[in-house]
Amino acid sequence: MAHGIYLDNNTTTHPSEKAIAKMLPFLTERWGTPSAPHLIGQQLFPAIEEALKGIYALLGAKESDNIIFTSSGAEGVNQIILSTYFDITVHTGKNQYITSVIDEAPAILAIGRLEQLSCVAVMAPADKNGRVTAQAIIEAMTPRTALVSLAWANGLTGVVNPIQEIAAVCRERGVYLHIDASHVLGKIFPEWEEIPAQFLTFNGDSFHAPSGTAGLFIRADVNCSPLILGGMEQGGYRAGTYSVGGLAALGQAAREAIDARDYMCTEVARLRGKFEKDLIASIPDAIVFFQDQERLPNCTAIAFPGVANEALLYLLSRKGVYASIGGGTYQQLGLILAASGIDPILAHTALSFSLSRETTEDEIDRAIVIIAECVQHLRKISKKNIIVSL
Amino acid sequence: MAHGIYLDNNTTTHPSEKAIAKMLPFLTERWGTPSAPHLIGQQLFPAIEEALKGIYALLGAKESDNIIFTSSGAEGVNQIILSTYFDITVHTGKNQYITSVIDEAPAILAIGRLEQLSCVAVMAPADKNGRVTAQAIIEAMTPRTALVSLAWANGLTGVVNPIQEIAAVCRERGVYLHIDASHVLGKIFPEWEEIPAQFLTFNGDSFHAPSGTAGLFIRADVNCSPLILGGMEQGGYRAGTYSVGGLAALGQAAREAIDARDYMCTEVARLRGKFEKDLIASIPDAIVFFQDQERLPNCTAIAFPGVANEALLYLLSRKGVYASIGGGTYQQLGLILAASGIDPILAHTALSFSLSRETTEDEIDRAIVIIAECVQHLRKISKKNIIVSL
């Protein structure tokens, strides 16, 4: 199966061969379940510990804190928000929950559901730089704020939020903070121990672990009741059988992500810069957003005035170039740009491109040619349509 | 790695080689995510549909109903119970939830948590045959009952609950019914279309799919809001990335489970009968429970008077025979037997043994010799301890 030129790595990544190799023995020979109190279960423990060590290392986290293996980042986000309701709101009456208008759908929807339980959901705005500022969080807060849940970076625009400042604001006011770190792990150098947040979630398939592997990080001194109740698996934080092989793959992918961070921040960032520069040279009226902001090294959002982004995405897919416009109701690039003050018509001409450590310079060069052709083609059709309709 | 004599198949099963073979391409070549609106995502749809067809066939379900791929049976159980709260209790005030004292921990704990939201949890009793009767459900019900959640069969004793009768009772009273079918799929011939239940959950690793694969079945005319909110994946019933490979493996395992049902109900049942008969011949005072009840064909619970079941489980594990005493706070064999009226001291001498289609007659013969030796050994030690302590 040809994968063409894959520039949608912030949606999912190609699983690392080494990670899959780590997984396979648990699908064949070592197939037990760690909750079984006999040898077939117990002998899995060393592999589980080895995998967890890799994840701790990627986060730069102390092993006294807890990491829960989940099936998706979305699961972890939902767990934090529901557990905050049961662990804080029920006992203290603090019932206000803050996320942002440009956040991911799991946080927005899970907080939204709490409104049925008499909670108040607040969406902090984005500024014109595509960021959620600490000031915006301060203005959203009340003495009843129970939780702030924010993505560390936006996976479509690549803009990194000032999480350290926001965490300081939350700490000052005694408010719990959840950071969705899916898009930053392996791309920036988080100093987790210096960020006073209580919870962190991530998707493994953002850094070359297979789909369906993810994690939820919980500080040692914080409670987090399960989303999936039903037993003492994973220290009582999450019941249900799980794929030990998936966890082993996640641990291996985490180790590789650590090794690749320098490369991501230098060579991949260079390729992203070349992509932007050469694309502007080919399509002079294309607009690269938020270039002067702190951004993920692998990601760029670019508008092609006069071209509907859905049409361009579809045409590029047919030509073997894969990009993104986001998905669902909330995490759409057009809406995120519009929420950051970009003219909505222009916003809906934009695509998001995200590279990985596997992206080559040759792919970038070929992608630019194909994108330029497709944009030209769609503009021609668009003009013809106008003439016909005249 | 030697797996010894594995008689703990109701905890987890050896993944089928064919199921794993179905999974592998999605870990290597076909690694996209189906929510991506371009070729890399969209080309996964035929495989997803093929897998779902296998699961529909195993359930004997109409494809107009919905099947959601989940990470565990426990996840599905939690989804149904929380969604019933949001979809029924919030709108109607019906706030009583029924499960049974011998049910699995996810149902007991998830219903228990709703008590924090002013719901009432009721645990229907088991009768002396290890069953939950329709009469017990009738007696537990009130006009405010929102949901009954029951396991179709107990995975430790093997006793099958009279689900048809219970479903009829629920239908008459307009109460939703969830059936946890993990232990029956592939072992009995459910006629799902004739059972008026709204929800069904199962774990794939009960029928030789890999761990971390499971399903939630929802009738077409019933709502079930997500446990994991965050997007339109899986028709909006469950957000978050998931392992398409895991789903493919589950579909294949479902097909094999259909093919193996006859064998499970004849040859595996014969081996189970031989195991019980020969074990009694070797250890005359051993007691087989619920032999005259409708039971799963592969499972038996046997007491060894005078022997602590935890000690026996441990010793058997060292000798390469793997059995079960259950796990966690609720699903313990001793508690389940005691709840069915068995003397608690006797109940805590019992082990559960569960065969699979891979269990051989030679394994059964060897297991009996090892079990008899271990029981004799523990009884000797126990007598010596008594003499010493005198």
Descriptive notes:
The structure is a homodimer of 390-residue chains. In chain A, helix 4 (73-92) runs parallel beside helix 5. By secondary structure, chain A is α/β, with parallel strands linked by helices. Chain A folds into 2 domains: 5-10 and 261-385, Aspartate Aminotransferase, domain 1, CATH 3.90.1150.10; 17-256, Aspartate Aminotransferase, domain 2 (3-Layer(aba) Sandwich), CATH 3.40.640. Helix content of chain A is 42%, strand content 14%. The mean pLDDT of chain A is 94. Chain A has helices spanning 17-23, 39-42, 45-59, 73-92, 105-114, 134-140, 163-173, 244-282, 309-318, 333-339, 344-347, 361-389, and strands spanning 5-6, 66-70, 96-100, 120-124, 145-151, 176-180, 199-203, 214-218, 287-288, 299-303, 321-322, 350-354. At the A-B interface, helix 1, helix 2, helix 4, helix 5 and helix 8 of A face helix 1, helix 2, helix 4, helix 5 and helix 8 of B.
Task: Determine the mean pLDDT of chain A.
Answer: 94
What is the second-level CATH architecture of the largest domain in chain A?
3-Layer(aba) Sandwich
Tell me the strand order in the biggest sheet of chain A: 2-8-7-6-5-3-4
- Percent of sequence in beta strands of chain A: 5-15%
CATH top level of the largest domain in chain A?
A: Alpha Beta
Distance between the termini of chain A: 44 Å
Can you give the helix content of chain A as a percent range?
40-55%
Count of separate structural domains of chain A: 2
The beta-strand count of chain A equals 12
